[in-house]
Amino acid sequence: MNVKRRPLLITFEGGEGSGKTTQLKGTNQVEGFYSWFVKNYGEAILLKEPGGEPVAEKIRDILLSKGNSISSMSELFLFEAARSQLYSSVINPSLRNKLSVLCDRSIDSTLAYQGYAGNINRELINQLNYEATSGRILDMTFIIDVSPEIGIKNAKKSKGRGTSRIDERDIMYHQKVAEGFREIARNNPKRCVLIPYVDGIEKVQDRIRGEFRSRYLVKF
User: Considering the chain, what percentage of its residues have pLDDT values greater than 70?
Assistant: First the structure.
């Protein structure tokens, strides 16, 4: 029986070293959510923010390079510029063409990092997020809740992953990011699922699949 399912926009969020990218892509031993989603729900593309599109990738390089000194407001506008480019040229057209989108970070990262941790007015950020996405509403967000101490250690030891200028901010900053994500989850219980970080990706992956299955897969 073929089931017609509407395209979904799903995001994965969390602090540095939370393992969200691994949960999306998987490992040699554990199938990632993206592959599982395609098999069980429908066709999709996998993207990341900032990036996922040529112009947005150039902005990503500017944002993450440790050699760049960027003011907090400039940083915010750069993130929003990259987001606007990605949504206008890739995400919104894909959804209109009935293709689901799974994205590694999106609007909640900007609110957590630049708002809760960076002390920029959160109403301004919400408005900029709305404009950059053309008002696109997210269907579901998985937030992996990791302690900043563990997360930063994970980020620094990840193979093939150099640290960025954001990774190297002090622990207080990352603690504010973590609490920001928790508050975002509390404020958006219908959309957001807060998942505690645990060692071994299998348990987190099982929880992600279970939460998605309970909301979007047909039960027989």
Answer: 95
Distance in angstroms (rounded) separating the CA atoms of residues 148 and 157: 14
The confidence score (pLDDT) of residue 2 equals: 52
Rounded Cα gap, residues 178 and 13, in angstroms: 10
Alpha-carbon dihedral of residues 128, 65, 12, 14, nearest 10 degrees? -100
- C-alpha span between 137 and 140 (Å, rounded): 9
As a CATH number, domain 9-216 is 3.40.50.300
* pLDDT at res. 220: 42
Rounded CA-CA distance 99/19 in Å is: 25
Q: Cα–Cα distance between 168 and 58 in angstroms, integer?
A: 21
**CB-based burial label for 194 (10 Å; 0-12, 13-18, 19+):** middle
**Cα dihedral angle (171, 176, 177, 180), rounded to 10 degrees?**
160
